Fold this sequence. Notes:
alpha/beta, 9-stranded mixed beta sheet, 13 helices
Amino acid sequence: MSAASENALFGMGNPLLDISAVVDKDFLDKFGLKSNDQILAEDHHKTLFEEIAKKNDVEYHAGGATQNSVKVAQWMIQEPHRVATFFGCIGTDRFGEILKQKAREAHVDARYYEQSEQPTGTCAACINGSNRSLVANLAAAECYKKEKHLDLDGNWELVEKAKVYYIAGFFLTVSPESILKVAKHASENNKIFCTNLSAPFICQFFKERLMEVMPYVDILFGNETEAATFAEVLGFETDDIAEIAKKTQNLPKVNTKRQRVVVFTQGKDDTAATVGGGVTMFPVLEMDQNKIVDTNGAGDAFVGGFLSALVQEQALEECLRAAHYAANVIIKRVGCTFPEKPSFH
C-alpha cells in the first residue's frame, strides 16, 4: 500500500482531450500539416477535430501537460485511487464528456470548471507512419476563472487537503491569479509548491508572471532548452546547466524553511538537480535509442514519476529514480500512455 492519501496531490492546468488516429498523406495535406510538427490550431483547422474523431481506430486520452503529470503520478501510485485532484476548464460538449470519462478511468479526481462559451480543448495527434503531427486547440482551457471555480468553498477545501501542488508554466497564460493563490497557500502552510518552465516562450513572453510566482516555488522543473532561455532572460551570463540551476535555486524565496530544489532534464544526458548547496548529475536509465517511439510526453511523465514519490515523502534521489523510470516507459509508447501497472520497485 502506498503512503499517499486521497487528494494529497493537487494539479491545475489546461485540460485537453487527446485525440489520436492514423491518417494518410491527403489528410495532412488537406490541413497543411507537417510531419512531427506541433502547432496551435488556426481557423482552417476547426473541422480537423471532428474529422479525426470519425476515424475507425481513434483513441482518446485525458491530456494537457499538468493533467498528464498527475495522471502518471496516479498510475505510479496505483492505490489508493484519486490521490491526485485536478482543476481546469472544459466545455459542456461531447468531447468534455469523453474527457471526464477518461479522467475517471485514470483514477484522477478531476473537478472541471464547465462553461458553454468555448468548446473543450483538444489536441489531435495525426499519426502517419512513424511520424505524428500535433494540433492543439486550447479553447475552453483558456477560460478558467478563479472566482467561479477555485474560490468556491467545496473546491478550495480540496486545495487545503493537498500536501503537494503542481501547476505547469503553461497556466501562467490563463490564470496567474489562481496560481498565486495556490502558491501562497502552500508557502504559508509549509507545503510543497512545484512548477515547470514548460516552454521557452513562457520564459520570454510571460517573464513577469513567472517571476511573480517564483518566490513561492519549492521545486522547479525544466529541460535544457528552457533552462538556457530562462538564464538568458534573467541575465545569468552562463550556459552551464549546473550553474543555471544553482543561480535559479538562489533566487528570492518566501518560505525559508524549505530550500528550493531545481531539476533540469537533458534528454538522454544526465539530469541536473540541486542537492543542498551543490548540483548533482543523475544519470537517466540506459536504453536502446531505437526503442524510442515518441518523446513527446517524456517531460510530463518525468514530473509525474517525481511527484508520485514526492507525495509519499520520499527522498530527492528516490523521486528522481521514479521520474527517470516513468519517462523511460512513456517514450517507448505513442502519446502519454502507459501499461496497466508499473514495474517500478
